[in-house]
């Protein structure tokens, strides 16, 4: 790096690598930051850091919204990366403008961003779909199907499930203390490893298995009784990607709209909320710190149009004499 006037790309790399080295971010976050930077800072990233000013950055960021049809969340991620490497540049006295003032001056509104409309059938398994897929999983109880079933009845994240060990289980519950993470190695290939800490502090929890599914514990542990991890195939721990592909094939087989493992988690959260479970228990099972997070992001209507019609039609005020 030219210490006196590095490129924007070099400053970003220094900032991102340093945060990883100091363990302020995980390998997965380091990879995500790199992907965001590479997507947006293609030519602009080759400019020398001292050749830019606040107006250049502000204009550049605002241009990214229509160019990539960004959602508000995607733009927020871009700002996070930009703010990070600019603060590093400021600390090294490579720039003189106020970084925080720059971001306060960016002129955006909600109407600028792409709105993503997601229908209920895309976000959760309906009551009918869940009956169908649960029946299939119970009647075809191989290793990966049992793992998917465990997600359905506990709301555990897929990364948490594939990282389970035998001693995590105790009766009808299991401890969640780790998760799978993904990053690229020196050859640019994705590597899936277990991180000895879940997604967040709230993610450290004990998941309870419903009484009617206590048999699931024994069935799961019998799959690989002598391996460290439970979900193992051919001597190797099964990755989240393998589980995702299995779920996709099951949805295709059962003619169910394909939904990712995270939609299983949303389905679980919706079920708890629909059954008016105590908020504290919901947060403990989901690994959330705020019930508003569950209600806002995980609560969807799982009833069919016919079921909704019956419910509304049963209201006395909507009946004719």
Topology summary:
Blueprint (H helix, E strand, L loop, with lengths): L7 H14 L5 H14 L13 H15 L3 H20 L7 H7 L14 H4 L3 H13 L3 H12 L3 H4 L7 E2 L2 E4 L2 E6 L5 E6 L9 E4 L6 H7 L10 E2 L2 E2 L2 H14 L7 H14 L4 H8 L4 H8 L6 H9 L8
Antiparallel strand pairs: 1-2, 2-5, 3-4, 6-7
Helix pairs in contact: 1-2, 1-4, 2-4, 3-5, 8-12, 12-14
Description:
The chain is mainly alpha-helical and 321 residues long. The chain has 2 domains: 8-112, DNA polymerase, domain 1 (Orthogonal Bundle), CATH 1.10.150; 120-305, hpI Integrase, Chain A (Orthogonal Bundle). It has 15 helices and 7 strands. The chain has helices spanning 8-21, 27-40, 54-68, 72-91, 99-105, 120-123, 127-139, 143-154, 158-161, 215-221, 240-253, 261-274, 279-286, 291-298, 305-313; strands spanning 169-170, 173-176, 179-184, 190-195, 205-208, 232-233, 236-237. It has a 3-stranded antiparallel beta sheet with strand order 1-2-5. Strands 3-4 form a two-stranded antiparallel ribbon. Strands 6-7 form a two-stranded antiparallel ribbon. Helix 3 crosses helix 5, helix 8 packs parallel to helix 12 (261-274) and helix 12 packs across helix 14. It is globular. The model has no long low-confidence stretch (mean pLDDT 91).
């Amino acid at each position: 790096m030219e210490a006196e006037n590095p490129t924007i790309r070099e400053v970003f790399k220094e900032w991102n690598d340093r945060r990883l080295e100091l363990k302020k971010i995980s390998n997965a976050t380091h990879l995500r930051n790199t992907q965001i930077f590479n997507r947006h800072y293609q030519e602009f990233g080759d400019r020398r850091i001292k050749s830019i000013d606040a107006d250049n950055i502000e204009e550049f960021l605002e241009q990214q919204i229509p160019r990539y049809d960004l959602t508000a969340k995607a733009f927020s991620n871009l700002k996070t990366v930009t703010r990070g490497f600019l603060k590093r540049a400021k600390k090294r006295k490579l720039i003189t403008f106020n970084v925080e003032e720059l971001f306060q001056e960016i002129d955006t509104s909600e109407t600028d961003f792409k709105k993503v409309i997601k229908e209920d059938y895309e976000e959760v398994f309906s009551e009918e779909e869940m009956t169908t897929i649960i029946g299939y999983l119970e009647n075809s109880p191989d290793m990966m199907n049992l793992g998917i079933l465990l997600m359905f009845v506990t709301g555990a994240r897929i990364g948490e499930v594939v990282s389970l060990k035998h001693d995590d289980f105790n009766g009808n519950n299991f401890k969640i203390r780790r998760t799978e993470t993904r990053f690229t190695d020196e050859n640019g290939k994705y590597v899936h490893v277990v991180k000895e800490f879940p997604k967040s502090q709230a993610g450290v929890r004990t998941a309870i298995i419903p009484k009617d599914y206590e048999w699931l514990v024994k069935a799961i542990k019998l799959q690989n009784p002598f391996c460290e991890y439970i979900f193992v195939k051919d001597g190797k721990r099964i990755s989240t990607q393998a589980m995702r592909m299995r779920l996709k094939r099951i949805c295709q087989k059962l003619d169910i709209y394909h939904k990712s493992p995270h939609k299983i988690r949303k389905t679980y959260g919706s079920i708890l909320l629909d059954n008016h479970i105590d908020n504290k228990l919901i947060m403990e099972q989901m690994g959330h710190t705020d019930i508003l997070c569950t209600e806002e992001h995980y609560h969807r209507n799982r009833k069919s149009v016919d079921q909704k019609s019956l419910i509304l039609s049963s209201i006395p005020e909507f009946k004719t004499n």
